[in-house]
Amino acid sequence: QVQLVESGGGLVQAGGSLRLSCAASGSIFSFNFMGWFRQAPGKQRELVAILPEGASTNYADSVKGRFTVSRDNAKNTMYLQMNSLKPEDTAVYYCRGWGARTDYWGQGTQVTVSS
């Protein structure tokens, strides 16, 4: 099994930045897809960004131009760099790795953006 652990969340002011990390206990090459999701109180979980294997990253319109995903395969870690944060970005952020046979979620990390 593969375990995913998010970190880096916290409280920031609007316009600030945070960098989230998603560390895998196993090789991230085992996943066909990796991505970031978020869920705000009272709202449905939504896609933030998806990294298909061998393809470019796709971002939700709400974060495009502000968020950037990267991977460090040597460290088995995926990152989410969040810039120009807005109060509406407040949510629990989850990383996910999945394929035809497996689907793993991290425990989530809280991001709170104050106005």
Relevant terms:
0% helix, globular, seven-stranded mixed β-sheet, 115 residues, four-stranded antiparallel β-sheet, 11 strands, mainly beta
What can you tell me about this protein's structure?
This protein has 115 residues and is an all-beta fold. It has no helices and 11 strands. The protein has strands spanning 4-7, 10-13, 18-24, 33-39, 46-52, 58-59, 67-72, 77-82, 91-98, 103-105, 109-114. A hairpin with a 5-residue loop joins strand 5 (46-52) and strand 6 (58-59).
Which helices and strands, and how do they pair?
Blueprint: E1 4-7, E2 10-13, E3 18-24, E4 33-39, E5 46-52, E6 58-59, E7 67-72, E8 77-82, E9 91-98, E10 103-105, E11 109-114
Parallel strand pairs: 2-11
Antiparallel strand pairs: 1-3, 3-8, 4-5, 4-9, 5-6, 7-8, 9-10, 9-11
Distance between the termini: 40 Å
Give the strand content.
over 45%
Number of helices: 0
Low-confidence segments:
none
- What is the H/E string? EEEEEEEEEEE
Specify the helix fraction band: under 10%
**Which secondary-structure class do the elements indicate?**
mainly beta
Number of strands: 11
- The dominant shape is globular
CA-based gyration radius: 13 Å
The major beta sheet can be summarized as: 7 strands, mixed
Average predicted confidence as pLDDT: 93
